[in-house]
Amino acid sequence: MSCNSNENIVNDYARISLKLSTRLPEPDSNNENILSNEKLLTLRVILRKDNGPILYNLFFNNVEDGSKKIIFDDLTVKQEGEVFEIIAIANEKTFISDSSNIDGLDINIEQIKNLLLDKDLNNPKMPILPQSAITKVKVGPNESKHLTMQMNFPLNKFKINFFNKTGTDISLTEVKVVSEFSKDGPLFPDLGINSVIPDKHNNLFFGNSGNIVIPQSGTVNIEDAILYTYPFKDTHNECYFSARWNNNIYTQKINIKETKSDSQSLIYGKQYDINVTLLNSMRINIDVKPWDVYNTILEYGTEFEGVLTPGLSNNSIKIYGKDSYKPSIAVALGMDGEKRNAIFNFKMKSPKGARWNIHLS
Predict the structure, then answer these.
(1) Which residue from 114, 150, 285, 350 has the fewest beta carbons nearer than 10 Å?
(2) ω into 290 cis (within 30 of 0)
(3) Angle CA 159–94–65, to nearest 5
(4) pLDDT computed for residue 27 by the predictor
């Protein structure tokens, strides 16, 4: 390697050790199988210097176990260190018609970062889903950085869980979710692309055009019970679930408000579990949670207000702060609305060495 008296332009080598992992989908409650269309099958990883040329554009087929380790070795960096941008895309061939457009080192990286997905997510049903991640990391000369990137679904998921207590098969019609759903969405939602709905439709139907037969067991074909949507922001229309049974229409509002403003937003990466109990009438309970997250890590604070959702349980646990008007309370509800034993786990990361006492009542 050549030397130069100006240390600001002397290059040395750095290393980035990267692990990419997918949000492994939780087993479907009906058949305990991982949904094949939500798996990470192929993976493309692009590395470039921040606002600079592409150094690597790697493609991996048949990714196993939902994760991939990659080492970028011998990266030349200046003495003060340099920032690298890493872009990861999963299952590209299912939504990009010509992958050659994103292959090689001479591609337009800004076009990729601004890519809009417009494939119909529900026709045909259960398509292989895209996943994506993007991050930046700074490394210095002779430095080795270890980095973990979490792949995310840039979409949302609606899933119905039926509890048939009538003792007979039940036929429902006009089973749907209603709102101003976008017909496309960004591959990288965090970049703020496409924040306003450019094109929309109002009804998304479950089953066969809204018709579903629920057997006594309550188990229906999984493709009849799931819908996927693109995220959207800033609409004044509400979102709700609706179904017709015995000439009666049952509806339940779905809370998609993220702030105190009047606008509604369907933020990516959410799963909306619609729990429908059928007896003398229809009872609907809707649980909003992160899409298939097994563990929630809580940072230390004087109080916590939020929702923990265990990945392999059907329970929902809510924990509130210690204010007098918000007493500490944990509530576990089954998907049918009945109380269940709460099973959950979380990690306290700081302060180190502290002793924690947990009280359950």
Answers:
(1) 350
(2) no
(3) 70
(4) 47
Contacts of 71 (CB under 8 A, 6+ apart): 15, 16, 17, 18
Q: 189's torsion region: left (phi>0), alpha (psi -120 to 50) or beta?
A: alpha
Which DSSP string do the residues of 189-257 spell out, in sequence order?
Answer: GGGT-S-S-SSEEEEEE-TBTTBEEE-TT----GGGSEEEE--EEEE-S-EEEEEEETTEEEEEEE---
- Summarize the confidence of residues 189-199 as an average pLDDT: 63
Residue 240, Cβ density class (10 Å: 0-12 exposed, 13-18 middle, ≥19 buried): middle
Cα separation of 15 and 18, whole Å?
10
In 10 A of CB 130, how many CB atoms? 23
Edge-to-edge, what's the strand order for the sheet holding 54-60? 54-60, 43-49, 82-90, 131-139
- Residues 91, 114: Cα–Cα separation, whole Å: 17
Find the angle CA(317)-CA(254)-CA(244) to the nearest 5 degrees. Answer: 115
Task: Kindly state the tokens that stand for 42.
Answer: 């192929």
- Amino acid letter for position 311: G
Overall residue count recorded for the chain in this entry? 361
